[in-house]
Amino acid sequence: MKNHITNRKANSNIYLPLNGKIEEIKELTNDVRLLKIRTESAIDYKPGQFFMISVWGAGEVPISATSLYKGNTTIELCIRKTGIVTTAIHSLEVGQSIGIRGPFGNGFPLDIPRGKDVIIVAGGIGIAPLRPIIKYLINNKYELGRVTLLYGSRTPDEIIFKDETEQWKESGISVILTVDKGNDSYSGNVGFVTNLWHTVRADFKNAIAYICGPEVMIKAAMRDLFFFGMSDEKIITTLEAHMKCGVGKCGHCYTGPKYICTDGPVFSYKQIKEQSILM
Ligand SMILES: Cc1cc2nc3c(=O)[nH]c(=O)nc-3n(C[C@H](O)[C@H](O)[C@H](O)COP(=O)(O)OP(=O)(O)OC[C@H]3O[C@@H](n4cnc5c(N)ncnc54)[C@H](O)[C@@H]3O)c2cc1C
Ligand code: FES
């Protein structure tokens, strides 16, 4: 019998998933996995866009691309086990199929003028959609100013992409980690990312910021950066909402006057304030 997920050209029908094959699985923490998915045809996407990922018999969930598009047929997804569908995704093994619809959403603006400082603020799984930006910045670092990553996790064991943070440092990014609660073998920062602004070497008035994490962190980080003199158009975040269709039809993600799936998920602080999206 033919698989319910047929192999078709990317985006030929927005409701039908493409067939992806799990090529690699990496356990990043207790409840977070990195999946490398091979698709039948190349899918063009940009940082900040998301895919609707489905498991037969379980359902479908929005997940951000955590890889940088390189014109090939693999996509990386970093997925935390939280409920029914993400648990089903975590039960899959290498070689098994997974459904992919997308990419959807607008993605991050990456037209960073030469020499600008960049501040990236991540909380928990919020590092996933920001990772492709970090990779993009590393590839283009000769054109940029100083790049700082402030990254908060609940505990030292929950730091996602810990190995990669070392590579990011070696590539010239100032990586500052913090945790809510330390342990005996941890000697780094403890506290919220928003307590670490003093470690950021940036010309705030001319910088650009990318933020993703829990809503409370996003709100606090945006307000602080605006207070430091950043333009509200240059403070950029990506938002989460409950989603069903991913394409602006079902209304599940409607927040204020905007659909998070089609108008976002990436918004500037200016849009968020003027259109009462998050406040
Ligand atoms: C644009 C976008 C990008 C995302 N990217 C990622 C990613 O890269 N990696 C990742 O691990 N997760 C990501 N998420 C969150 C992910 O979609 C949810 O964790 C997932 O939908 C939960 O589904 P479930 O069936 O496993 O859980 P359920 O059984 O549906 O619910 C488990 C719990 O999670 C809550 N929940 C469910 N969906 C959401 C949601 N969308 N936002 C907030 N809480 C939710 C429920 O209220 C419930 O408390 C993203 C969400 C959006 C909207
Ligand atoms: S998820 Fe259906 S309208 Fe946004």
Structure characterization notes:
By secondary structure, this protein is an alpha/beta fold. It has five helices and 15 strands. It has helices at residues 84-90, 127-139, 162-170, 215-227, 269-274, and strands at 18-27, 32-39, 50-55, 59-64, 74-80, 97-104, 118-123, 147-153, 174-179, 189-190, 208-212, 235-238, 254-255, 258-259, 266-268. The longest helix has 13 residues, at 127-139. The chain is globular, with a radius of gyration of 19 Å. Residues 1-8 have low confidence and may be disordered. The structure holds flavin-adenine dinucleotide and FE2/S2 (inorganic) cluster (FES). Residues 50, 61-64, 78-80, 82-86, 125, 128, 240-243, 265 line the site of flavin-adenine dinucleotide (FAD).
Largest pleated sheet: 7 strands, mixed
- Rg on CA atoms, Å: 19 Å
- Total number of helices: 5
Shape: globular
Query: What is the H/E order?
Result: EEEEEHEEHEHEEEHEEEEH
| Highest CATH level, the class of the largest domain | Alpha Beta
Strand percentage: 25-35%
How far the N terminus sits from the C terminus, by CA atoms, comes to 50 Å
Give the total of domains: 2
- Shape-level CATH architecture of the largest domain: 3-Layer(aba) Sandwich
The quaternary structure here is single chain
Pfam family, one: DHODB_Fe-S_bind
Protein name: Oxidoreductase
Family: Belongs to the PyrK family.
Keywords: 2Fe-2S, Electron transport, FAD, Flavoprotein, Iron, Iron-sulfur, Metal-binding, Transport
Write the layout of secondary structure elements.
Blueprint: E1 18-27, E2 32-39, E3 50-55, E4 59-64, E5 74-80, H1 84-90, E6 97-104, E7 118-123, H2 127-139, E8 147-153, H3 162-170, E9 174-179, E10 189-190, E11 208-212, H4 215-227, E12 235-238, E13 254-255, E14 258-259, E15 266-268, H5 269-274
Parallel strand pairs: 7-8, 7-11, 8-9, 9-10, 11-12
Antiparallel strand pairs: 1-2, 1-6, 2-5, 3-4, 3-6, 12-15, 13-14
The protein binds flavin-adenine dinucleotide and FE2/S2 (inorganic) cluster.
The site of FE2/S2 (inorganic) cluster has 12 residues, from loops.
Pfam families: DHODB_Fe-S_bind, FAD_binding_6, NAD_binding_1
Binding site for [2Fe-2S] cluster: 245, 250, 253, 261
Protein name: Oxidoreductase
